[in-house]
Write a structure and sequence with these properties.
Number of helices: 3
Strand content: 25-35%
Largest sheet: 5 strands, mixed
Helix content: 10-25%
CATH topology of one domain: Immunoglobulin-like
Radius of gyration: 64 Å
Distance between the termini: 254 Å
Shape: rod-shaped
CATH class of one domain: Mainly Beta
């Protein structure tokens, strides 16, 4: 066999062996290699915050909420009162105050609460809320993810309901007692047992010890303007009568 031909066969065999080995290693690298993991980012839940300064309202204070919209858009929902007739909507206007990076203070003043209005049974006329029959108040706060400056809502929205219990008592009726009028009495003057001071030309002091003494006043006959001495003529009349009686008696004796 030609030596040159044998050298060519060996060279071809080595070439085929090298190509086979390269293909096997390439297949192993593709099959056994690790594929990088794909990480999916899940947005965090939108959680705004609302806190209240009181858990029970007695009618003597304001109800104040601290609201943090967490960079979103915040708006107030309806207010309901719960009583014997269930939940009833209430018309009441709160005061809003922005004080730090979109954080707000929502204040329902005690006067605004006391003057709150609801609807009658036919939902035709507004009437005053009888707070003595209310057990709790429901406040609805609505939040939406988005830019509060642009006002464009995006993403999640969230309603937060806050409840405040109520315990308002009816005002007490104060009754002022009246004292019946006492009959007027004249106090008896105190007896003066000390030294009596006599004032010249002063009227005599009345003796209150002689209150039971009856005083008799002599009444004089009314004057007629006649100044004749009546006693003189009466005496003459008596003397004449006696003389007449004596003369008559003597006449009977002489007969």
């Amino acid at each position: 066999m030609n030596k040159k031909f044998m050298t060519m066969l060996v060279a071809c065999a080595l070439s085929v062996s090298a190509l086979s080995t390269t293909a096997v290693f390439a297949e192993d690298a593709v099959v056994t290699g690790e594929t990088p993991a794909v990480t999916e980012t899940t947005p965090a839940a939108y959680e705004p915050e609302v806190t209240v300064n009181t858990s029970k309202w007695t009618g003597d204070s304001d109800i104040v909420f601290e609201v943090d919209a967490k960079g979103g858009i915040f708006s107030l929902g309806e207010v309901y009162v719960y009583g014997a007739n269930g939940a009833e909507p209430v018309s009441i206007q709160p005061e809003l105050e922005v004080y730090e990076e979109g954080k707000k203070k929502v204040t329902y003043t005690k006067d605004a609460l006391k003057n709150a209005k609801t609807w009658d049974e036919n939902f035709e006329n507004k009437i005053a809320v009888d707070w003595t029959k209310v057990s709790k108040i429901e406040f609805d706060f609505y939040f939406q993810e988005g830019d509060p400056l642009v006002g464009q809502p995006v993403g999640q929205h969230k309603d937060k309901f806050m409840y405040v219990e109520t315990s308002v008592k009816a005002p007490e009726i104060t009754v002022t007692p009246t004292t019946p009028a006492q009959p007027s009495t004249h106090a008896k003057p105190a007896e003066n047992k000390g030294t009596t001071t006599i004032t010249p030309n002063a009227p005599a002091a009345k003796d209150y010890k002689k209150t039971n003494t009856t005083t008799t006043t002599k009444k004089e006959a009314p004057k007629t303007g006649d100044t004749m001495n009546v006693a003189l003529y009466a005496s003459l009349l008596v003397v004449s009568a006696l003389a007449a009686v004596v003369l008559a008696t003597k006449k009977k004796v002489t007969e």
